[in-house]
Amino acid sequence: MKCTLAELRNKEIINIKNGARMGFVDDVEFDTDDSMIKSFIVYGRSRFFGLFGREDDIILTCDDIEIIGVDTVLISADEAKLAKRRTLQSKSLLK
Predict the structure, then answer these.
(1) What whole-number distance in Å separates Cα of residue 65 and Cα of residue 77?
(2) Which among 9, 67, 69, 18 has a CA at the least distance from the CA of 42?
(3) How far apart (Å, rounded) are the C-alpha atoms in residues 94 and 65?
(4) Rg of the chain's alpha carbons, rounded to an integer?
(5) Which residues of the chain have pLDDT under 70?
């Protein structure tokens, strides 16, 4: 199945380990050397209408993805693993 980025942005991400709705795909990170997608990024939810910033972004690697369906993307990832990626990503952006 072929899928464009515009179509991918309309698919909801659901974690099959705990049934949590993660959000929608907001951005894609890819490697320019081999033209492969590395991860999907879900922007963090805004806090109090955006006045207090937003939560950390969620970075989903291609290894986390189980299946990309017609209207959902099913992933299998532990919350601790996702939280660790969020902190590592935010620290690397500060450098």
Answers:
(1) 8
(2) 9
(3) 28
(4) 14
(5) 1, 47, 49-50, 53-54, 83-95
Instruction: Quote the CA–CA distance of 71 and 1 in Å, as a whole number.
Output: 13
Q: What is the pLDDT of residue 85?
A: 62
In terms of C-beta density within 10 A (0-12 exposed, 13-18 middle, 19 or more buried), how is residue 40 classed? Answer: buried
Beta bridge partners of 75: 15, 65
Looking at the whole model, is its pTM more than 0.85? Answer: no
Task: Report how far residue 36's alpha carbon sits from residue 29's, in angstroms, rounded to the nearest whole number.
Answer: 9
Residue 2 three-state SS: coil
